[in-house]
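Thread: iron/sulfur cluster complex, take 2
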Amino acid sequence: MYKAFQDVISNVSATVLKHEASLGRPVIGVMPAYFPMELIDAAGGYPVQLWGNNLPIHHADAHLQGYCCSVARSMMELELRGSAKMVKAYAFTTLCDTLVNLREIYNRTFTKPDVVLSMPMTRTMEARRTYLKDGLKSVASGLESITGQKITDESLADAAACHGRTRELQRELYQIRRDKPGLIKNRDFYSVIKAGFFLPRAVYNEMLSELIQKLAPLEAPEGKRVSVVVSGLVFDPIDVFDIFDELGMDVVDDDFANGWRTVSKDTLQTSNLVEGVARYLYEAAPCCCLYNADNDRHDYLVEKVRSAKADGVLFWYINFCEPDAFDAPLLKARMKEEGIPNSSIDIDLTTTNLDAVKTRINAFAEILEG
Ligand code: SF4
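Output below.
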């Protein structure tokens, strides 16, 4: 049932090249996170989400400090090795200082064009709209000059419907997992979500829709297993999910930036694009990288754990990710106050020996079983 999704993520280059040829659209690499990919599709581009990779770092260290997160370092490595030749341009956001600086370094090191969506870090919706107004104009004209195609009301509405459908289907998949823990192996679930980073929307939507139809009549396995909610920026290395599977644990929900924090975003409203993007960014699940005092991450995570009936929370920390590190102490303190057991793993995307991570997860599972 999951082979087609696994094939995509085990050979990303072949997947992207195949679809680039059939679509005849320029591939635009979307750097994490929350860039509205609807804009890229509407301008005639083929958006591919780049959340880092597991390449051993050989070249990137000449450009980035060793204490830079492995998302940024592995992306730089990909380009320096010449392994991202099919990516014609990049779309950045200003989600964190690392990404802001990464774009500067890309501009000085490579010749590929890019666009950048500056994220408003302001208190009110009105201030966010004001801030986004000019930024969105520049993103749209930048994309149009990369693709040579104009964004029209129609192309924007079509792209919004298609991407909105993707997230709607993914939310259905999340609901199946919450309702039937253990039905989908942890590794399989995240293979399905990850495949969506690289496939054109129409292709992915069809695959996802077929999968959901197959899963809907199936029952969850009998018996209660240890269940957790996992919180972090990026759900890689994906091999960590094999550990949960081996230990008989169920991830019943998540709070990943490339998981639920993105999946929870509603269909982009395009009749007033500035308003639509402001809502798209700030009205879904909260994120450590998006300042929004009205959308509290602590209450949200407590509610997530309770509604998923999870036994605890595992924080999945990508080393040197400052926004995540800043939020972690208060989040953990709140979990403690609420009596929700929690633990954490520290990891790099490039980590290949997962023995220490396995020991940590196993110890947490034993605590939860106790
Ligand atoms: S992992 Fe953290 S520091 Fe690295 S790019 Fe993402 S948000 Fe920024």
